[in-house]
Amino acid sequence: MAHTQFAVFASGRGSNFQSIYQRIESGDIPGKIACVISNNRDAPVLEKARTSQIPAFHKAESQFDLPAGYVEDISALLKELQVDYVLLAGYMKMIPEALIEQYPNKIVNIHPALLPSFGGKGYYGMKVHQAVIERGVKWTGVTIHFVDKIYDHGPIIYQYPVRVRDDDTPESLSERMLEYEHRVYPKIVGWLCNDWVQVKGLRTSFTGPAGEWEL
Question: Residue 91 is part of which domain span?
Answer without folding.
Answer: 1-103
